[in-house]
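Hi Y.,

Following your request, here is the sequence exactly as I used it, all 991 residues.
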Amino acid sequence: MDRKLLVTDPRKSWVQRVRRIELDVLDSARSAFGSLGEKDTLSVSGLFHLVGMVGAGKSTLRDVLTVETVRQGRRVTIVVGDVAEQMRLVELFRRLELKVAPVLGTSTRTRNIQRMHRRLTSAGAGSLLSHEARQFKYLSTACPLDALRGREALEPLDIADSPCTRLYPANTRKEGRAQDDVPPDGAEHAPTSSPTAAPDDADHDRMGTAEGCPLWGACPRHRGAHDLVDADIWVANPASLVYGLTPRHQNRERARFLEVACVRSDLIIVDEADRVQMQLDTMFVPSATLVGRSPDSWLDELQTHTTDEFARYGRLQLSDADVDRWSSSLTASIAATNRLYSMLMRHSSLQRWIRDDYFSSWTLQQKLLDDWFPKPSAPDAPDQDDEPDIDFEEESREEADLDEQPDDDPGTESGTVGEPEDAADARRTAVTEMLDTFRDDPLGGEGTDDPELTDLVALARALLHTLDEETTRLQAGATLTRLSGLAPGTDAEMRRRTLRFEFTVLVCILQQRLDVITELWPTVETALNLESTDNQLARRPPLDYGPLLPESPMGNILGFQLLTENLDATRGSAGAELRFFRCTGVGRALLTGLHRITALDGRPTAHVLLMSGTSWAGTAAGAHVLAPVRAILKISPKEHRALLQTTFRKVFVPGPDGRPLHLSGTRPDLRPKVLELMLDGLARPREGQFESTLEEELRLIPSTRRKRLLLLVGSYDEARRAFEVLEGIPRWKGRVCRLIPDDAELEVSFGGVDPGEPLASAQSMTLRRGDVSAFGTMDAQILIAPLMSVERGHNILNDAGQAAIGSVLFLARPHPRPYDIGIAVQGINSWAMRLMANGEFDRLVASAPDLDTAGRSFRREARIRWKHLLTRRMAWRELNDEDKVAFTWDRLVVMWQVIGRLVRGGVPARVVFVDSRFAEREAAGRGPDDFRTGLLASLLHVLAPYFDEDGPHTPADRHLVKMLYEPLYQALGNLPPYRPDAPRRTTRGAA
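Below is the corresponding structure, written out as tokens. Let me know if you'd prefer a different format.
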């Protein structure tokens, strides 16, 4: 490798990097770890979980192991975090003259090309004409058929329009579709929409049999697919494996790349396995904040974006019927949401009705039916609050390879147990069936002969568009009375029931129209330039994995959740956040069961190597991978001693009132001012001091090659604000660089930017996330970045191969947003997987008289747990002790991964905690914190038992934690107390 890569620097030699690798391996009894000798063999069989301290050489082991495996005539698949890392590895193995190809998705092709151009521009290639990169051959958008389309084709075919498997003889096309090839007058510059939701779907608007493109084998758009056939190394990311389909030109069977990788690969290496686990959890529970405060308001952002796109092209996009349907659905969704918000804000009783957990059109329908037709539940009947699981058959009518659902399948009836016994039961059954039909089409697009359903559809339309609320309420009351047969009752009771009925009807409209938006999203994505607008809801996980994954513990459900904000003390200023989620399975089970996928077809199990520095993390809900650790990658004793010199300290900046400042927990409208005050206190000498905190930190870094600082904030917007503040201070002007997203737009002309222009100077002090490793070669002394953007991935090294940054300052505590549904998903999945791993699930099933009772018992417990996780507020003060411990382990992983950027090459790090919420009591002068009051104290609390020889943990677990987290534990234990009035020493070398 050194010879082919022309490595001459001994410090960067692959030989030297391999020599420093040391491994401890779990013994056959799985009770203790022992060193792997030079003559011993490391055997990767089945699922093999390997961990190693940050900076221990996991990437080196991954790359060298891949090269050696391929040289033995075997095949390897590597799973990494993002496309940038994919391309870097592809280039590395290509230079080693190995057959390698990336597994890339087509839906993100345009975005990846744009990112590549932006990165090259940021690297100094200002003119687009000078952009040359080998990776472009895998990102081509050229289509050979463009040359055959004639003069009427005014724009190249977009990726979404690729007719790779959708070519039809001209004489069999339906009349009226021929104009699709000719844009309307004046539409030369309007984007074109994709004619189908996906290139491989059948086109129902054309006649005849679809044919494959005869030029596919030489098409530059599919260079990656061509190379995958003979490649010995596949480099993929989780999304491209899970969602990607093998091309029909190459594979007659419909198969996902994940399945093919398991079948063809002798070894699958999953890098950063804990991050992949969290990504899989998210993939199988897509969610979005529908409406909230800007900028976290998806529907508002989508409406603004769509309006701008329509205005830009004079609404020419609406010449496409799918765009028209999509736009109408968006309009209806916005209208329904506004009506719902109006009702919620004016009627607190509705908030109490829905805020206990989550709600959907189905759960609200059940509540109405139980109120209209009260009936005691049978002893063995399902819980009335249970929601039916998502009907996968209903969502996949076009999947010909799925079996039909049996007619006698239990659970397909909604709302009744057994046959109706009297007229009330018969009426409830009839109303239930009618409401089920209404939920599928609440605005009546398909028409109906049922007069009751016609009345309900008319009510839905009236509720959506009415300007006379009282008249519509009378209409709703009349419809309710006819459906339920209830006597009017008191005015208050009737008003309460009518409000709930109206609310349910509006939720039905919103839910159905959101389904239309997500289904049509791929079809209109290009026409409306939706690539820049994130849509988690449109990324439904493929149904192919249904047989492989356990369903979500609380059931495969979908629903809404209303979260009331209490951030502002000003009367009337509180708002509410509405979010939508869809649970379709325990995503992390795909990772720990990856080696068994091939066994389903009777093949031998695959060999999977899981690697990470933090995939063993106690009771962490997100990061801890429930696969036994079988090997530990160690650092050398010399490097270990150096890492133990890592030091922590607290520097809390006092505000105008004398109290220490904190970004964490601060109201969004106040955060910019707090950030400005905090930076001003760090960047300027305080009264009676000769140097600022930032100057002091630079001085205390011993190595001249590492005198750089990393300032961590909460977001890219805060990074921009912090950059502007420091640039305004003469001492730091021109010495600060900020990180920007890979997708961020900069003002770049076609011919590039004149280096003498002010714009060029400003752009030279920005760095895209994918290029963050270049900071080690820049003249800047400070890098400002969002905490989560530098948590993992790219190393920032100097010319000596060591961490280029010597000190990191946490200006914000690593804390998720309150009510973050991703945390709830990780929590419920972790709970379910641990229940199965520790035998509790088996005991629950064994103790039940039958499987139905066991299933209901488990589902009941899961929904209690889900409700707790959904409704708890992720504020430190409000977490119970159990949640605090799990939360602390997850925050420990985030912080240690960030600090890991500073210890590469076996060097110590300096860490400064600036946000006073790290130690709230101590910062306020109320004494030392404990694990209930401060995150730093809690970090020490969860680690301490593993360093106690007489503690409750096994020797193997104690050894594991020592190998992974000892420098962190030592630094926390040596953390000096906060002394706000202590004089600052300025002699060189003072701490």
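The mean pLDDT is 82.

Thanks again,
Q.
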